[in-house]
Amino acid sequence: MHETALMAEVLKIVQQSALENNLPKVTKIKLAVGKLSMALPKALIFAFQVLKKETVCEEAELEIESKEIVLQCLDCTREFRPQDYHFSCPFCTSSQVKIIQGRELHIISFEGEENELGSNCGSTLVKSQ
Fold it and tell me: What's the rounded Cα separation, in Å, for the pair 14 and 114?
């Protein structure tokens, strides 16, 4: 189950960024997961529940934003969403396509609570770049 390794890396990145941003507690993590990433959302959620224990993410919720497959035809330049993983252009029937969206798996953002030493009180949103 590679989702466990993926989630371990996500938690490592979030924990490091939380430390850099003076956030002792992470309350929410938002991920983008493309349909072609081969990562199953249910398996990611399960791995998250197991791996977040005894970390700054222990009380965090995980939100997964599913990204549909979007292709661009290299011949007619139109963008389209394939039906049933049929990757030829529905406009000109070319099989020369580029994947525009659907392979991603990245952290969109995470939220946390600052401690008393932070510049603000309350929660902070950190977005990935």
Answer: 14
